[in-house]
Amino acid sequence: MKNVIMMYRTHYRTHYVKDALKQIGNKVRLAGWVHDIRDLGKIKFIQLRDRTGIIQVLIKKGVVSDELFNLSFNKEDVLAVEGTVKESKIATAGVELVADSLQQLNRVEIKLPVDPTGRVPSELDTRLDHRYIDLRKEDINLIFSIKSTVATAFRRRLVEQHDFVEIHPSAITGAATEGGADVFQLQYFENKAYLVQSPQLYKQLAVIGGLDRVMITMPVFRAEKHNTTTHLNEIIQMDVEIGFADHNDAMDVLEDVFIYILREVQEKHGEKIREKFGPLVVPDKLPRHSYTELVDKLNSENFNMKWGEDFSKEAEKKLYEILNEEAYFIYDWPTAVRAFYSMPDEKNEEICHAYDLMYRGLEISSGAQRIHLPSVLEAQLRKRGLNPADFEFYIRAFRAGAPPHSGWSIGLERLTMKICNLQNIREAMLFPRDRVRLYP
């Protein structure tokens, strides 16, 4: 609902700050935190902050009761204030709230370990330990508003434009997925179970079952003992699987959804993003480069890479510099470096129909056309030295009549991280889980 002033009536507020600023001459009730204070004797100025912005509150002696006027305030005290919105030549926003009553809802009783104004910097670990204070900073609050917009846009585009069904598979499984490595094991009553690394199997089963076009937004867990700025042990995946589709069909959907997400973020947060994180460019189309083409480009620029290797982080960074493209696809990968279920090319089995979406030098989505024929799936497992009998739980579904299908997954934190030009993926997770962090 654009260009509409929304009302948020509760016992404590009638408006958020951003909408109260448009209510000149009207009485409103606001609620939030004390961002800053100036006491000039007979008048006091309080900068009141909520998640939408900051407004100057003018408290005059004689307008409010002496009892209220004589209240002492700390930064980050919680207030509800009622009064009239008036124009002001000295207020930053050009308007202020002239209070006629206020309520002190809670007082700060400790020395705050993180400065919500952002004037005093804090180490990332300190901020994450006290995330409930860190979130009060405008730029940090903005990150999670953007993340919400990304997830909402993902769902909306797939449902409204592409007729997808949202499914909700379990995060607990009795069989370790993706080969069984790097999984978190747990005790499930009398049985051994695992936290899922990927909803891959479940979304394929849903397509085989006839739901045809499915999407998922869910947490997944990887017990990888890494400590990098681009990995977490719990992430949110936005997954898609499309029945009766090849890799080109899936890339078409991914391109449309990705561009739509960026447009929605730009429309809703563009001005603040430019101010806090730098400009956001929304492409009209995404270039597509084959794996072989990009290996050749790297070698032509004296960055040595052998065909058949995966791209290192350094190689991805170099390609970003060479191509000068914000976002692009890499397709037709060497079969040996992709998941065993990736469909080999009919003419050249050394290449498979897998693809990655790169954004600002980082892989933010990966996918492939899946092998839907049991005999081909078994042959690929044997080529990798694996016993098809160990994967019968997976292959069996394809013996029941599986259509050709293709899918992909976007890492919600990675995409948010890159949209906001963050240096560490932990900043894009509300309460991140890594090798050492279990609290809060």
Write the topology of this structure.
Layout: H1 17-20, E1 27-39, E2 43-50, E3 53-60, H2 66-69, E4 78-87, E5 95-106, H3 124-129, H4 131-134, H5 138-160, E6 165-166, E7 172-173, E8 185-188, E9 191-195, H6 200-208, E10 213-221, E11 234-243, H7 247-276, E12 288-290, H8 291-300, H9 313-323, E13 327-334, E14 351-359, E15 362-369, H10 374-383, H11 392-395, E16 405-411, H12 412-419
Parallel strand pairs: 3-5, 6-10, 12-13
Antiparallel strand pairs: 1-2, 1-4, 2-3, 4-5, 7-9, 8-9, 10-11, 11-16, 13-14, 14-15, 15-16
Helix pairs in contact: 5-7, 5-12
Please describe what this structure looks like.
The protein has 440 residues and is an alpha+beta fold. The protein folds into 2 domains: 90 residues, OB fold (Dihydrolipoamide Acetyltransferase, E2P); 254 residues, Bira Bifunctional Protein, Domain 2 (BirA Bifunctional Protein, domain 2), CATH 3.30.930.10. Helices cover 28% and strands 27% of the residues. The protein has 12 helices and 16 strands. The strands form 3 sheets. The protein has an 8-stranded mixed β-sheet with strand order 6-10-11-16-15-14-13-12, sandwiched between helices. It has a 5-stranded mixed beta barrel with strand order 1-2-3-5-4. It has a 3-stranded antiparallel β-sheet with strand order 7-9-8, with no helix packed on it. The two termini are 35 Å apart.
Distance from N terminus to C terminus (CA atoms, Å) equals 35 Å
Radius of gyration: 27 Å
Low-pLDDT stretches are none
E-strand count: 16
Q: How many strands, which pairing sense, and closed or not: the largest β-sheet?
A: 8 strands, mixed
Write the CATH fold name of the largest domain: BirA Bifunctional Protein, domain 2
- Secondary structure class reads alpha+beta
Which geometry do the CA atoms define? elongated
Proportion of beta-strand residues = 25-35%
**Strand/helix succession:** HEEEHEEHHHEEEEHEEHEHHEEEHHEH
Spatial strand sequence of the major β-sheet:
6-10-11-16-15-14-13-12
Q: Which second-level CATH architecture of the largest domain applies?
A: 2-Layer Sandwich
Question: In CATH, what is the class of the largest domain?
Answer: Alpha Beta
Mean pLDDT metric: 94
How helix-rich are the residues, as a percent range? Answer: 25-40%
Total domain count = 2
The CATH superfamily of the largest domain is identified as: Bira Bifunctional Protein, Domain 2
Q: What's the number of helices? A: 12
